Amino acid sequence: METTLCLIKPDATRRRLAGPILGRLESEGFEVLAIRRLQLREPTARAFYAIHKDRPFYMELIGFMTSGPIYALALRREGAIAYLRQVVGATDPAEAEPGTIRAEHAENKQENCVHASDAPETAVAEIPFFFPLTDLAI
User: Fold this and answer.
1) Domain total in the chain
2) CA–CA distance, 95 with 136 (Å, rounded to integer)
């Protein structure tokens, strides 16, 4: 079993898509280990997305991710990281496979409804931003 992080972004929360997205994840076999609704503050967003700090879209990304509530989810299943990426679809909704969350709901590359950890080491680093590891049975 593998554990990964999924964020339901402000655009999805604003459009009341958190419930449908969560339902989709559960129907795909993900076990929700933890869920938290929160408003990201700028320092946390900057730390979480520090890998992008030198990219031209960084400040716009920080502004977007702090623009409204998000949901953080710790999810578990066999092959969770790769499978979540498959269910979510490509970052650019124009390139996302039909039937994926982003193909169905995303507005553009930034307002694409969800964030999903992209590798085991990323998940290990990202999950503690939102959940103390001692609170998770992983």
Assistant:
1) 1
2) 34
- 138 within domain boundaries: no
Q: How far apart are CA 46 and CA 12, in angstroms?
A: 20
Q: What is the pLDDT of residues 110-134, one digit of tens each?
A: 899 999 999 999 999 999 999 986 6
CATH of the domain at 88: 3.30.70.141
Task: Give CA–CA dist 7/74, Å, rounded.
Answer: 9
Give the number of other Cβ atoms within 10 Å of residue 4's Cβ. Answer: 28
Tell me if residue 115 is catalytic: yes
SS3 per residue for 39-77: ECCHHHHHHHCHHHCCCCCHHHHHHHHCCCEEEEEEEEE
| Residue from 72, 113, 115, 131 carrying the catalytic annotation | 115
Strands, E assignment, 1-138: 2-8, 31-39, 69-77, 114-116
Taking only the tens place, the pLDDT of each residue in 2-52 is 999 999 999 999 999 999 999 999 999 999 999 999 999 999 999 999 999
Residue 74 contacts residue 32 (beta carbons within 8 Å): yes
